[in-house]
Specification:
Elements: E1 9-18, E2 30-37, E3 40-44, E4 47-51, E5 55-59, E6 65-69, E7 75-83, H1 102-109, E8 119-121, H2 124-142, H3 148-168, E9 175-176, H4 182-195, H5 202-209, H6 213-224, H7 228-246, H8 251-257, H9 263-274, H10 278-292
Length: about 300
């Protein structure tokens, strides 16, 4: 595909903050991220990028990636999921193709961004423009404005133009050279993602990765800046938060279905990682939902 054929289709746009370490993500579409504030690391396949405010990141489909924020400093991100072109067969939410991975995807479809850096830095004078474009796109999407697809497409083209120009200026984020054992780590990450709800045995994880347990723990810590135990707890906690926000299940049930051996352990880890108890988190979610509901108005009778 050449630039003149580029006609991006925006699937989703969100503005959110990441705290600490995230689980490994794999998306079936391209992901464009602008960092509004915070510092941390984007781990994409076998590369680590030190990221900071003003950075733009593009992640191709099916590329496994992890985000690790600096301690006590959330990463405020503007995230856009998009396709390079509109395809009527790819509308709505896309499930992951279980038989697909990044290498296979590139074989079938290529990587449009292969000749560009994954992370570029936007000059300070240009950052306000980036934020204004994304806010405009977010407003159009949020309020379901008529013909919003055209606004989203034009906004995405503007953002990609900024990305391409910044890449020509060599404004790239510092990165660390790849890890030779990345394929092994990727197998470990995917195994944890698939079995987090079970009582995970690290010996099983190491066998799946094809590394000795001691070596896996050392490489995992060196590359992700966290231990395997901490990562497993993070994956479980993310799912637990999703469950708490989505339904009224009891904490004992949620703890068991997310892989915690007891509700007491679940509460202790929840508090240690998120800074609040499960009950406090549920109350906060309910309070936010109530505030977002429209206030009914009383009709005056004549």
């Amino acid at each position: 595909m050449i630039l003149n054929e580029l006609s991006p289709y925006v699937r989703d746009l969100k503005i959110h903050a990441s705290h600490g370490l995230t689980p490994a993500y794999i998306d079936p579409e391209h992901v464009f991220t602008y960092l509004k504030s915070g510092h941390g690391f984007f781990i994409m396949a076998d590369m680590q990028y030190a990221v900071q405010p003003g950075d733009l990141i593009i992640i191709p489909p099916y590329l496994l990636h992890i985000i690790n924020c600096c301690k006590n400093e959330p990463l405020m991100q503007y995230v856009i999921h998009f396709d390079l072109q509109f395809d009527p067969d790819r509308q709505g939410s896309l499930p992951l193709d279980e038989g697909m991975n990044y290498a296979r995807y590139c074989e079938l479809h290529g990587n449009f961004f292969a000749d560009f850096p994954a992370v570029v830095s936007v000059p300070v004078p240009e950052r306000r423009r980036v934020e204004e474009i994304i806010r405009r796109m977010n407003d159009e999407s949020k309020f379901q404005a008529p013909y919003r697809e055209l606004t989203l497409k034009s906004g995405m083209l503007e953002l990609l133009n900024i990305f391409f120009r910044c890449s020509e200026l060599n404004l790239t984020a510092p990165r660390r050279a790849g890890c030779k054992t990345w394929p092994n780590l990727e197998r470990a990450l995917q195994y944890i993602q698939s079995h987090y709800h079970e009582p995970l045995d690290l010996a099983e994880v190491s066998r799946e990765a094809g590394l000795s347990l001691n070596y896996l723990c050392r490489v995992f810590k060196d590359y992700t800046r966290t231990s395997i135990h901490q990562y497993i707890n993070t994956v479980r906690l993310v799912e637990a938060k999703r469950r708490i926000a989505a339904d009224e299940s009891g904490f004992k049930e949620i703890a068991a279905e997310c892989g915690f051996s007891s509700v007491h352990l679940f509460s202790r880890i929840f508090k240690a990682i998120s800074g609040q108890t499960p009950s406090e988190y549920r109350d906060k979610i309910r309070s936010t939902e109530l505030k977002s509901k429209p206030v009914p108005t009383n009709k005056l009778k004549h």
